[in-house]
Amino acid sequence: MPLEDGDSARWRGQQVNGEVSGTLQEGKTEDRPRRDTAVPNDGRTEVMAEGREPGPELGDEDVIPRRSPQQAGQREEALMAELSELVQKVVRSSSWWERHGVDVSILACSILLLPAGFLCLRSAQAIPFLVGVLTLGVVHHTLTVKGSHLASHNALTESKSWGKVWAIFFIELCSAFTVEQGTYNHVKIHHGYTNIIGMGDSSTWKVPFLNRYVYMFVAPLAVPIITPLVALDLLRNVEWKAAVRTLCCMFLGLYCHYWLLLHVSGFQSPWAALLCMLLIRSLLAHPYIHVNIFQHIGLPMFAPERKPKRIQLMSLGVLNLPRNPLLDWAFGHSLISCHVEHHLFPSLSDNMCLKIKPVVSQYLKQKKLPYNEDTYTSRLQLFLQRYEELMVHAPPITELVGIQ
């Protein structure tokens, strides 16, 4: 059985959603999110996969001979099962250090750097002050992006109880967001319905009334302000106990940052402390926004009733960027160079995604399935050139003619 998101499947003998055992165990499969999700039906015209879909194009070698839908589905399920078995062997042979230790150490090192960063801000000289801003900015994004992302997939530990604790710490205390809604929107919707129109098509990242330059280069500075505001709005959808917990954690995280700037870094003015706080929290906001749109938008989109099988959906609708030391540290491999691997096996840690990358890439290429890769610069140029098409207008729906 293929390895899927959420409750669809769990491995025994390896870490998936915090469980350890020895065989692949079937559970219930969710074809829809937990709550009702409206799927828009706006009558958009379907287009062929060989048409003018932005993003990497499929060559002749990527086209699988056409089969009946039933034959194609059986073949793709068999491919996913085979790939899952290959990845399972890699995970079984990996130590705890490889499965969790590397990423936990990165997060721990980031926390240990906090005192140095706040103390550097005490300096009246420009260079130490900038070092403090850079240190705290990288630490903040490591905890809020890498930490929150791994915690939402329970990839930091094999214990469900500790997984919940880490999720609250990284998502609510550090990121000022809500665990329940963050996990639901990311794990259940984005991962479960990647590039499905009206569900997991990354449309939440689009702001059509902004022009390309404002969106790409100015708007990211507002992310630290927008994030808690969005979280407050989403609290209407959670139980009151979770809402109270989230409010307390959000307030504690924001106030601690502000207090440390005043009493450790020595800021005399509250407004200066708030401005520095905004600068720190928006330091890597530009690549954060860019990465989230580069890796899905512009690739094939599908109608809910024509959702392809998992291995095909992820190979077509996900893209890897090249390795980058700064972004690898702050965002994690699963969000940068191993995003395809992450979407196929979302419960694996960043380090494990990097370890299985050769297996996954070789397998997809051998089976004539797409393995999308592009550079950061190339994607930036593409979005600047085709911003109206990709970020303003509704995306065309891809029909899998010639692929199945």
TrEMBL record:
> According to the UniProt entry, which residue ranges have a biased composition of type Polar residues?
14-26
- Which terms does the record give in the GO molecular function aspect? oxidoreductase activity, acting on paired donors, with oxidation of a pair of donors resulting in the reduction of molecular oxygen to two molecules of water
BP terms from Gene Ontology: fatty acid biosynthetic process
What is the name listed in the Swiss-Prot or TrEMBL entry for this protein?
FADS6 desaturase
Question: What is the organism of origin for this protein?
Answer: Indicator maculatus
Q: Which superkingdom is the protein from?
A: Eukaryota
Q: What positions does the domain Fatty acid desaturase occupy?
A: 129-373
Signal peptide annotation: none
Keyword hit for Signal: no
Q: Which InterPro entries match?
A: FA_desaturase_dom, Fatty_acid_desaturase
User: Where is the stretch described as Disordered?
Assistant: 1-75
This entry carries the following GO cellular component terms, namely: membrane
What residues form the membrane-spanning segments? 213-235, 242-260, 272-291
**Keyword Lipid metabolism tagged:** yes
